[in-house]
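Pilot study result, target chain (150 residues):
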Amino acid sequence: MSINTRSKKRELVNAFAEYSIEQSAKKGVSLNLPKEALTSNTGEAAFIKSSLLDISVIGCAIDSSYLIPPGIILNLRIDPKPFAVEGIKERKESLQITGKVTSCVMKAAGHYRLGVKFSNIRKEDLELIDTFINAKERRKAPRWDMTKGV
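Predicted structure:
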């Protein structure tokens, strides 16, 4: 059994995410990525499609097709639909977060698990993640069986 040493609670989540590599992070680092993964036809940063694996208020894990070394800064866009919680208005706008890659572990051929620590997150995105985690935690609490006799 593994011991959870994380400072904040994280939740598994299956969400669409995409990331681009911060321009300043490309200088001085050799990235083994195709050119089209770095810049679009218009010269802007290209976003690479990915999936969100888990999330906490301080970071997340994403599944990447590319090896991205620790220290690289990513701009993340995350689909807000999986974070919809009962009683809260559903968001249409993506979560937009900047984070630093802290780990990159190969999980299968062509699949890397990137650990990302958030460095810049909007207040409303942070609140949405926190509400989602708290709602998931409440659902895991055991229910009382009121049918048993006293």
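One observation from the pilot: Residues 17 and 78 are 4 Å apart (CA to CA). A full batch analysis is planned for the follow-on phase.
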